[in-house]
Amino acid sequence: MIPLASTQESFQRYVLEGDAAIAAAIAGPDDTFRKTRLGIYRDAYWLRLVEVLGNDFETLKAFVGDEIFDALARAYIEANASTFRNVRWFGGRFADFLRDHEASRGRPVLAELAGFEWALGLAFDAPDEAALEVQSLAAVPGEDWPGLVFRGHPSLHVLRLHWNVAEIWRAARDGVAPPAASTLEPPATTAIWRRQLDTYFRPLAEDEARMLEAVLRGAAFSEVCAILAARHEAGAAQRAAQLLRNWVEEGWLGSYRVME
Fold it and tell me: What is the pLDDT of residues 120-129, one digit of tens each?
């Protein structure tokens, strides 16, 4: 008798890779019957993953159409067998795949739109961690401010967008025809975050983008002010303080510490 574990492994190879060795273990009158019986499970696996990708990348699917999306999704599944217990994370490499795949690399807007949608999903699914509050910052002694180091809230994601994917996403949300793909000049650094049960995004001014990038890489507040001082001959500290307050009110920061 064939061990159960061997049968299960053989069946999995058929579902994932199309290895038909398991057919010999399937009861039935002929090969056609056995292949049809097996095909139900393999087709269900593929269809379910295509459905998952269609849900996670709903705007991308609407933008390219069902037929093209189905082909891209199946190519992705073939190249990336699911290794996740939770299918929610299966599409994590889809944007990178579209960036490199021969059928989509000539349309870079598709990879960027996929990345944008995935970031929105990550923001929504982020841990329910309390955000830093204005009152906490107000209690920081003045002498500690130069050494303050902030940590971004888990829901905060920052993307550098080169295409009008935010407009395309809004059109899909509003149920109107999407605009044609077009490049952004200059590219837009965009913040994506969640507040309560809603996700938001907005483009950042260039100085705000540079400051946020510095904060998220762990720069102290004194270094952040120096970055702004290079752009603002006067008022750098005030600008930094105002941006910091805005971020706290929007829930972008999770905590802070004082450098020793």
Answer: 999 999 999 9
Query: Residue 16 in contact with residue 81, Cβ under 8 Å?
Result: yes
Nearest by Cα to 79 from 64, 57, 99: 99
Radius of gyration (Cα) for the chain, nearest Å? 24
For the chain, domain boundaries: 1-93
What's 81's DSSP letter? -
Read off the pTM: 0.86
> 3-state DSSP call for residue 85?
coil
* Phi, psi of 255, deg, nearest 5: -165, 180
**Helical H segments across the chain, by residue range:** 4-17, 31-56, 58-64, 66-79, 94-100, 108-125, 134-138, 165-174, 206-216, 221-229, 236-250
pLDDT digits 0-9 by tens, 195-239: 988 999 999 999 999 999 999 999 999 998 888 888 766 778 788
Q: How far is Cα of residue 178 from the mean position of the Cα atoms in its chain?
A: 21
Place of tokens 């190249």: 79
